[in-house]
TrEMBL record:
Residues covered by the DSBA-like thioredoxin domain: 3-204
PANTHER family for this protein: GLUTATHIONE S-TRANSFERASE KAPPA, THIOREDOXIN SUPERFAMILY PROTEIN
A molecular function GO annotation: oxidoreductase activity
InterPro entries according to UniProt: DSBA-like_thioredoxin_dom (IPR001853), Thioredoxin-like_sf (IPR036249)
Database matches in Pfam families: DSBA (PF01323)
SUPFAM superfamilies on file: Thioredoxin-like
Protein name: DsbA family oxidoreductase
Length: 209
């Protein structure tokens, strides 16, 4: 079964959704699943480097206080914790995710897409790493198993894998993706959002009928 996942590295629900799906797939040990990550940008207009953490950025954008922004995010932090994830929005620096998406496509070409997604998610939400910093991206990509020189090429040439990212986003628009994460099972069933494990389990069981 092929599962396509439209996702953005900067999306807190995408990491949660990844964990929920993984838990669901573990209930089908005798089945084979092919996971393909697809690019999506929640906000392509963000400057490459805002220099602001999530709390501050959203406070300014919504015209509220940082304290109110922190309060708004408490539910997300708790939900992440419920699936074993430790979110630190005070460290997560908002930036444009385009370069990270291009590196993910390099990873996909090397059959390392899932590894790269996991490393980027953890680096951003848990470790507060800057996913628009060249040396940081190189370090994380090498950790996923990518070749340093190939990553450098992607960083130097902004057109490398750009079309792949754009095609993913265009395809998302064509099939009606309103937000992420968005999961498509064998192009027959779709699950929108970081749904409970049961939603994924039920979808897979329905597919197997």
């Amino acid at each position: 079964m092929k599962i396509e996942i439209w996702s953005d590295i900067m999306c807190p629900f995408c990491y949660i959704g990844k964990r929920q799906l993984e838990t669901a797939l573990a209930e089908f040990p005798n089945d084979e699943f092919e996971i393909e990550w697809k690019s999506f940008q929640l906000d392509p207009t963000i400057t490459p480097q805002s220099g602001k953490d999530v709390y501050t950025f959203l406070a300014e954008r919504k015209g509220i206080s940082v304290e109110q922004s922190i309060e708004m995010h408490k539910g997300v932090v708790e939900r992440a914790k419920s699936v074993g994830l430790d979110y630190h929005f005070d460290k997560a620096i908002i930036s444009n995710s385009l370069t990270a998406h291009r590196i993910i496509h390099l990873a996909k070409a090397k059959k390392l897409g899932d590894e790269m997604e996991e490393i980027f998610f953890k680096a951003y939400f848990t470790e507060g790493r800057d996913l628009n910093d060249g040396p940081t991206l190189i370090e994380l990509a090498i950790k996923a198993g990518l070749d340093q020189n190939q990553v450098l090429e992607v960083l130097k040439d902004e057109d490398l894998f750009l079309k792949d990212v754009e095609n993913d986003i265009k395809e998302a628009q064509e099939i009606g993706v309103q937000g992420v994460p968005f999961f498509v099972f064998d192009r027959k069933y779709a699950v929108s959002g970081a749904q409970p494990v049961e939603a994924f389990v039920n979808t897979i069981k329905e597919m197997q009928k």
